[in-house]
Design goal:
The complex is a heterodimer. In chain A, strands 5, 6, 7, 8 and 9 form a 5-stranded antiparallel beta sheet that branches. Chain A is an alpha+beta fold. In chain A, a hairpin with a 5-residue loop joins strand 2 and strand 3. The longest helix of chain A has 13 residues. Helix content of chain B is 38%, strand content 17%. Chain B contains 22 helices and 22 strands. In chain B, the strands form 5 sheets. A 6-stranded parallel beta sheet of chain B has the order 3-2-4-5-7-6, sandwiched between helices. The longest helix of chain B is centred in the first third of the chain and has 15 residues. The radius of gyration of chain B is 24 Å and the shape is globular. The chains are: A alpha+beta, B alpha/beta. Chains A and B meet through helix 1 and helix 2 of A and loops of B.
Amino acid sequence: MESKQPMRHILSLLLENEAGALSRVAGLFSARGYNIESLTVAPTEDPTLSRMTIVTSGSEEVIEQITKQLNKLIDVVKVFDLNEGNHIERELMLVKVRAEGKDREELKRTADIFRGRIIDVTDRTYTIELTGPRDKLDAFLEAIARSQILETVRTGASGIGRGEWVLRV
Amino acid sequence: MRLTGAEIAIQCLQEEGVEFVFGYPGGAVLYIYDALFNQDKVKHILVRHEQAALHAADAYARASGRTGVALVTSGPGVTNAVTGIATAHMDSIPMVVISGQVPTPAIGLDAFQEVDTVGITRPCVKHNFLVKHVDELASTIKKAFYVAASGRPGPVLVDIPKDVSQHIAEFTYPKSVSMRSYNPVTKGHSGQIKKAVQMLMEARRPMVYVGGGVILGNASEQLTHLVQDLGFPCTNTLMGLGAYPGTDPQFVGMLGMHGTYEANLAMQHCDVLLAVGARFDDRVIGNPQHFYSEARRIIHVDIDPSSISKRVRVDVPIVGNVADVLEEMQKLINASPVRPDTTALKDWWKQIGEWRARECLRYDHSSAIIKPQYVVEKLYEVTHGDAIVTSDVGQHQMWAAQYYKFDKPRRWLNSGGLGTMGFGLPAAMGAQLAYPDATVACVTGEASIQMCIQELSTCKQYHLPVKIINLNNRYLGMVRQWQQILHGNRYSESYMDALPDFVKLAESYGHVGVRIENPADVEPALREAFALKNRVVFLDFITDQTENVFPMVKAGHGLTEMIMGAEDL
């Protein structure tokens, strides 16, 4: 197959909420050498189903193969490439930063600009909660000094289609 | 009816109409073996190594079209079985593997003979299950048989912890299965089928390329009819041999790395290609870039959507059961007012005739040393082309594929995808059990046969009179060939020193062993061997040490960049 520029895709999956389903998906990606930028999974309102969001990248051909291979997994009920329509992507990040002296005010202001919330405070640190698409979280980290960052935790993206469209069994 | 888990497992096998279970007992499956002991509907075949249990069950499935069943214990039982599971997986063979597991409270505690079976086998099964409660056992086994045989078939493993096999539950065998996450497609898209037929009618240089999917899908009849009706040339892959009759004039031979000159050239130069139940793998089309260098339109019929546009982009993809799709195509062909251009087709056949005239499978018939090709040709004659032939992996496998002409499906059983040495002998056992009256021959080499030689003992125990055709060249022949051609004659570890005396070895297992060293003795030895209907005969043919398999396309090269013989080296 001729190779084309790899593109970032967000795949949404519904899968059986069973032990081992996650490792089948993760195993498929490692066995076939596909990229995973992030993967999140949790049960849905129907406890027998889990919803997974995988952020991956590849040429059109690779993404087509990934989708087909995912569909082949017996535990996978539905696969949808959110890039095929308008969609919303959100990620949660928790950042612990060094916040002392005059930096405290500045960090508070920056967090406000990014609509982040300070959810834990000590004399010397803030823990900031931030939600948004990946680039917004990246931009926040760019906006504060590297030396101030003590720890970051990111959930990876969750995605959902815009408008009336829903992914269901 | 209240039964133990072990009794439930055996009842399920009875309900599925399972004739044979190939297995080996051990601690974690003792209750299941106890349940086997108390009944006589399901017959157990005790192998000498779990790998052989899997290959025998696999070949039973390949030969009969039914689902093969294997039973192994936890830990090493499973790890020994993995090669056989992966072999079946690569060739899409329907199989249910039941494995014992340590008791549920012991799982994860590094218990004796514990291994993460579901984890180890995950990448080489179609699906697997760990049964955590006896209440789920019957429905899980039902699902396993359904998943294994439907859609694109494959092995399914059911891991049963020892306490689950001991616990008691109410047994009812489910009549049907429905799984919201598994609904294999059967019918092809009628619009696509129409487009495909139109394309076939426009073809000036058509080619039909047939893989193992046609055999697995029981579509040989439909395929043969369609090809003969249209008058198109047809090639079979290694896995597809027998899907289209090997003696038919429209058959241009196997294609691929060791395919015929005419098959590979027709594949490259056709203008419309109909691919059925095949997957354009690296051993078949070589380098995809080279394959693209000639323009052609491709119709691809396969039951697995992920096989389509994987290595080669196609113009008309049709996902569906091959037999159904071919039948629908045939209906449209019958009703079609247009037919392919006969003049163009005649010219195409003329071209193919010229390629054929090179007689690419010619070899030296005057040799004083036994040529391996000659042995296979004589095997074909002596068995009237009607044997079930199994093989191991290497040169002998290719010679068997090239020189034994398979006219019917399910007569050629080999490990095409995984390329598993050791497959041949246990496979012959499985085939012989499926067809007790059939002539079964295992074409092998002195290296491959030693990978499962212990099964000579199983053959003795169950009176399985398979015939072993050992093409003994005292080399790992295919490795030696690659080292000669690609690695400057540096024969690194490809020589087999200290071989056993196979005649005595066969005799020690209670079989007949014969060594053949002269070409003149080949045919009589074969005749005598096949006349011994009730004995295993081990024919040890001392063959030309340095004979190579030709034609040959080097790995990564184009399909038409063939080495035709020693003169091209």
